[in-house]
Amino acid sequence: MRLATWNVNSIRSRLDRVLSWLDRAGIDVLALQETKCRDDQFPSEAFEQAGYEVAHTGFSQWNGVAIASRIGMDDVEIAFPGQPGFDKDAQSSLLPAPVVEARALGATCAGTRVWSLYVPNGRSLRDPHYEYKLEWLAALRDSGARWLAEDPAARIALCGDWNIAPTDDDVWSVDFFRGRTHVSEPERNAFRAIVDAGYTDVLRRFAPGPGVYTYWDYTQLRFPRREGMKIDFVLASPALNALAKDAMVDRQERKGKGASDHAPVIVDIAD
Questions:
Q1: All domains of the chain, ordered by start, with CATH?
Q2: pTM for this structure?
């Protein structure tokens, strides 16, 4: 199985590019993030014509996650157990309870439980969205640990845009990011807690060291200057990690007109 994760930063803007890449790269299962559309706007028919089943959850022009599979798809689940919600106006008791955003979607593809995850950004260290991010990651850690406790042999892939650079090697400049989200110790600790629960960062296993990035901001010529971040990952359960043969970033997909600001991460799994 060739598994990939990609924050496409609007599927409707990049549909042709994504479909062309799926065929060219031989992808069996793709986890998509930041689709930026409602379910009725998602181009399911185009994926189906290309031979992929699709599941999607999205409520507006923000967030949105999907899974496309050409090897089958069962047990689709929107949101993981305990996934917290967020309401930017939650300080008002007159408003409804926080809404669970379209940030997590699970499906079983040929025996592997694939989750497409779009971890909250956090915005700033003093923003309520930052606390929400930490709560979201803690809830994911609890669910992930429970899945492995229930079935230690489960093949699980936690795929997506994690909005965390877990080590200093994962950013182009430690000084530039100091005091910002994505690199704070609470965020890094939250990421490590999921790893410690039994999940392996497959990309780091096969592509260690500095300079392996998955995201480059559109501004300041970040991409040609190689000023990026590694924030997109596939975290694999022990059983799935044992089957992983290779992992890479397809940096070519960040090039050219109309590219997403993220590049796909690909993991090859033995049959």
A1: 2-89+99-269 (3.60.10.10)
A2: 0.96
